[in-house]
# Entry
Amino acid sequence: MTTTNNLIKQNIKAELQLQSESLLLKSAAITNQIKTIEEQATAGTELVSVYLDPIAKTSPFGTQVDPYMNQQMPGYTNKPAQMNFKLLRSIARKTEPISAIIKVRCNQVGAYSHVSDDLNKAGFRIMLTNKEDKPTPQEIQEMKMIEQFMLNTGFEYNPDRSDNFEAVQRKLVRDRLTLDAIALQLVANKSGELAEFWVMDGGTIAFATEDFQYTRRDTYQPIKYVQVSNGQVMGEFTDLELAYGVANPSSEITSLGYGESEVELLVEIITSYLFSRDYNKFFFTKNSVPAGILSLTGKYRTEELDMFKRQWAAQVQGVNNAWRVPIIASEDGKAVSFQHLKTSQKDAEFMKWMDFLIKMTCAVYQTSPEEINFEAGSTGDAGPMIAKEGGQSIMTSKDRGLVPLLRFLQNFYNSNLIRRINPKYKFVFTGVEPQDQEKDIDLKVKKKFFTTVNEIRASEDLPGLTLMVGDVNIFDMPDNPAIWNMVMTMKQTKDQEAQAAAMQEQQGAAPAEGGAIPAEGENKSVEEDLDSPEEV
# Structure
């Protein structure tokens, strides 16, 4: 018993000693911190907090994903929707209006895949992030180098990388409008700098979870994305190795970070369209409902009826057994009658229904029906939702659909590509809003009333012009009629005064050259003789 008590005492003593040493260490640390603050205050330098790390960050307290979603697979999460990516692609291919819209947008974005020398024409440019800065020759060279990087999808030639920038954009636009999921694989060189980028199938990218079992041993960074095909993980990517983007994000925790495709929003419309289209197709090919019944009244032999049926089938039966008409015979008298069983398509308002479905599809995709060769307002509406003029309608459609798409891609490139190369540069699509050129010209014309030509040229980094009118340089004057009238009036007054002074000088110099000045009376008599009529 005594031995046990001694052991307990020794353990308590050792623990107290450790706590005492810990307190001494903390006390010493606090003393050093106080000493540091006093030295900073004495030196007059800015005090730095010794308790708060300015770059320390805390994790958010809430959650952005639902941990109880049944879409979670071992190590990654699937898209939480009734339709997976494979089904979305299949639906988009089978629905002609959606295929047409995607094709149009791919062609439109493809026109912005080259470097443009004119900011008001379709293309792209690499510019300084700060618009107020003027690029140096070295920065101009760097911007051209980044432009070539974008055009070739890499700094160095790689025979395995066959896609140019236009092919990359077309693939991204198709995935964006079909899946709302785009992805680029970012390949770095040995120094860790971005060297090239590849398009990835956005439908195969999933978000890795915290319990994901790493198989890579060449990185210490956490795995954020995985590529999944047929339920098998084909690749693992960190945040620096893959860029993933969605255009329609949602704050719902059940979305698990995935976007919402326009195809998902159009499920009911697409279903109605496919049923209506197939109904119209089968109306001519696989119609099992007869158009009517042919009734033969009278007494006919079996051989005669069979021969008539064979002849009828050979002459009027439709493709794939369509429009097969039942033939019946009765024995009361002799006559032939036909009873209709079908109504016309016009009565069913079939065309108006199809037109409505196409318009709804265009509305969700923010495009005009005219862009896919359908007329707006063709169903007899009081007025189309978009202006009837073709040019104005298409321009409005581009503002609603094409411009947001280009802005999304532009931000995606800047966030994942250009910022990693050098954050002082940015990727910009040019000619997105060409009407701005007309606005700028109109503004400059208005500025001419209170701004000189040389001031406008100086704002465009152009040299000044000189054209003197008297003592005034006309290019240093505003193009204001009131000011010009005042200046011209002043100039004419000065010219008249100068002419009058010159005439006075000439009159003063004339007597000295011509001889004596005549007397006043003689001069007067001469004037009277000239004014008086000649006597006969």
In short: The radius of gyration is 44 Å. The first strand starts at residue 72 and ends at 73. The CA atoms of residues 368 and 374 lie 8 Å apart. Residues 17-57 form one domain.
